[in-house]
């Protein structure tokens, strides 16, 4: 009896290269994200992490290599970009909510106006998502009436409204006060436990150790090391990753 076929990667990058002018931002990036897998991108500021994740949903373009999301190859066409945007949900560092719309309206605007979903249907789908991120009591408030952690949880629920195959998080807690970080990470861990495919750019290495299937350490636009969290944090194989992990350990001791 033959073994079941391995499903293709949900996201596949092969020899991806990107430049900003003469600055080589991404260098020969090759990665694959399996269905249900959680990948954490980490490394120093300016290493290319955010640029890479923004390439995945077409916010940035790349000059060389191959990028496929779901069944769609990013070929520069408007059709491919629209398909990838439907397949991915993006959560940014600074929330990007519409300040003049209520929480409910922020969630339902996209499905109603881009997909033609009836308003009653969109509201019915939004309610359990707001319950999931513990914001039912804030449904009709405006973003300016919420804390930073609450706004980021609204942003997560809004991304989930489009039922993405892959969730992308670009440093989702870096703009938050320390006491608000855990309420956002708790929601992300809940999503991970439910099998959501995720790529996360973060400096929260405790989250990476608990949730990630693969930790990818980047520096100067290159993948320096990629390993499961147990191996990456306990025994990194490169000197650059050892320095990074050692720095994290010293910060934890302070």
Q: What is the CA–CA distance across the termini?
A: 55 Å
* Weakly predicted, low-confidence segments: none
Helix/strand structural class: alpha/beta
User: How many strands, which pairing sense, and closed or not: the largest β-sheet?
Assistant: 6 strands, mixed
As laid out across the biggest beta sheet, the strand order is 6-7-8-3-9-10
Q: Gyration radius, to the nearest Å?
A: 19 Å
What's the helical proportion of residues? 40-55%
CATH superfamily of one domain: P-loop containing nucleotide triphosphate hydrolases
Membrane topology: Peripheral membrane protein
Protein name: ABC transporter ATP-binding protein
Keywords: Amino-acid transport, ATP-binding, Cell membrane, Membrane, Nucleotide-binding, Transport
GO molecular function: ABC-type amino acid transporter activity; ATP binding; ATP hydrolysis activity
List the helices and strands and how they pair.
Layout: E1 11-20, E2 23-33, E3 38-42, H1 49-56, E4 64-69, E5 72-73, H2 78-87, E6 88-91, H3 103-115, H4 119-132, H5 148-161, E7 166-170, H6 178-193, E8 197-201, H7 205-211, E9 214-219, E10 222-227, H8 229-234, H9 239-253
């Amino acid at each position: 009896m033959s073994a079941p076929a391995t499903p293709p990667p949900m996201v596949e990058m092969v020899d991806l290269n990107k430049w900003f002018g003469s600055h080589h931002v991404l260098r020969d990036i090759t990665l694959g994200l399996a269905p249900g897998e959680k990948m954490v991108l980490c490394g120093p500021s300016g290493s290319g992490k955010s640029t890479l994740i923004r390439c995945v949903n077409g916010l940035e373009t790349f000059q060389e290599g191959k990028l496929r999301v779901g069944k769609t190859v990013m070929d520069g066409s408007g059709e491919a970009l629209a398909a990838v945007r439907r397949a991915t949900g993006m959560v940014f560092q600074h929330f990007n909510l519409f300040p003049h719309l209520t929480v409910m309206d922020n969630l339902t605007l996209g499905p109603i106006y881009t997909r033609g979903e009836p308003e009653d249907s969109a509201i019915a789908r939004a309610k359990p998502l707001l319950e999931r991120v513990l914001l039912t009591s804030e449904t009709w408030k405006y973003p300016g009436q919420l804390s930073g952690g609450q706004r980021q949880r609204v942003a997560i629920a809004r991304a989930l409204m489009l039922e993405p195959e892959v969730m992308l998080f670009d440093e989702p807690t870096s703009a938050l006060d320390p006491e608000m970080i855990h309420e956002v990470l708790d929601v992300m861990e809940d999503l991970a436990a439910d099998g959501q495919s995720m790529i996360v750019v973060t400096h929260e290495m405790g989250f990476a150790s608990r949730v990630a299937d693969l930790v990818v350490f980047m520096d100067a636009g290159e993948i320096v090391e990629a390993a499961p969290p147990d191996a990456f944090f306990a025994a990194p194989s490169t000197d650059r990753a050892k320095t990074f992990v050692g720095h994290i350990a010293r910060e934890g001791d302070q």
